[in-house]
Amino acid sequence: MPKQTVVLLFGGRSSEHTISCATAGGVLDAIDRDRYTVIPVGITREGAFTLEEDRAAKFTLNPDAMPEVVDNGSRILWPQSTASKELRVVDASGEAHSLGDVDVVFPILHGPWGEDGTLQGMLELLGLPYVGDGVLASALAMDKHFAKIAFAAAGIPVAPGVTVSARQWATSPSSVVESAAALGWPVFVKPARAGSSVGVTRVESALDLAAAMAIGLAEDSKVLIEAAIVGREIECGVLSGRGDAAPRVSVAGEIVVSGRAFYDFDAKYLDAPGIDLVCPAEISDAEASTLRQLAARAFDAIGGSGLARADFFLTESGWVINEINTMPGFTPISMFPKCWLASGMSYPELIDELITLGLETVR
Q: pTM surpassing 0.85?
C-alpha cells in the first residue's frame, strides 16, 4: 500500500504558537512513518508558511526555551486550484521545487487564525482534505459566547455569566462591575476567543476586576465573566463515528487542583505544581453515562467532525459544561490523548484515526 502524504501544519499567529509547536513535536515523533510521508509546514508568528525540519526534538516543550517557528526564508506555495493537490516550496535562495501531491492536511494550531475556522476555510477553498472540525464548528466552538448559546439550545446546562465587549467596558465600567457582582464573587474573566487558559483570571472582588479585564481584552475584543462553579473538573475526548455512526466518547479524566487557583497555562504545559490529571476519573456509572450523552450532544450542537475535548464541571446538582475545544491540547501528556489511551487507543493509533476521519469527511 503506497504511503499517504500528510502536511502537518503548526505554529501560527496566536498566543498559543508555542503549544502548537510542542504538539507538532509529539505528532512528528509518534506518526507511523511506514504509512505516512510527513511534510512539516510551520506558520511563523507573522503568518508566513515555511517548510520546517522533520525533526521532533526541535519542538520539544521546554519551559526555558519554548519551541517556535522561526522564518527560514522558505515559502510554501499551495495548489493553484482544486484541480491540483501539488504542494510546492520556494527555498531561501528563490528556487522553487515540488513537494508532491498532498493527501490530507493535519492542522494542529490552537487559537485564532488556526482553530477558529479561518484556516479550515482556506483548505476548503483549495479543495484539500483535512483533519478536524469544519469552518462552522471551529468558529462556533472558538467563540465561547456563541457556543454557550448553542449548548443551552441543546439543553446542556451552562455556567451563569455575561459577555462584555471592549466598548462596553470602556463606556460603562460601573455597569460591568454590577453585572459581575450579581454573579457572586469569585468570578472568572476569560477572552471569548482564546484557549489554553491564555488571558484567564480568577477575580475575588470588584477591586481586581479592572486588571482582569485588561488581561482578557488584550487577547480579544470581548470577554466572558462567569460565576465560579463549585464542582469537579471533568473532561472527555470525542471522536466522530465512522460513516453515519454516532460520536464516540472516551472515558473521563479529572483535573484535580490542589495548590493553584485554577488549571492555568503553566499547569497545563509547563508542569507547574498543584495539578494532577487523573484518568480515568472516579465517577459512578450513571454519572459516566450522562457525561457521554452530554459530550456527544455538545459535539453535535456545534456540528462537530473529527475530534473535540468536552470540558464539564460535576456539581452537586449535576453536570455543567464549561467549553468544547475543537483542537484540544494534543501533546502526548495532554488530557485528550490520555483519555483515549485509557479507552484503549494509543497515541499513534489516535493519529491514524484522525487522519482516516479527515480523509472520510465530506466538506
A: yes
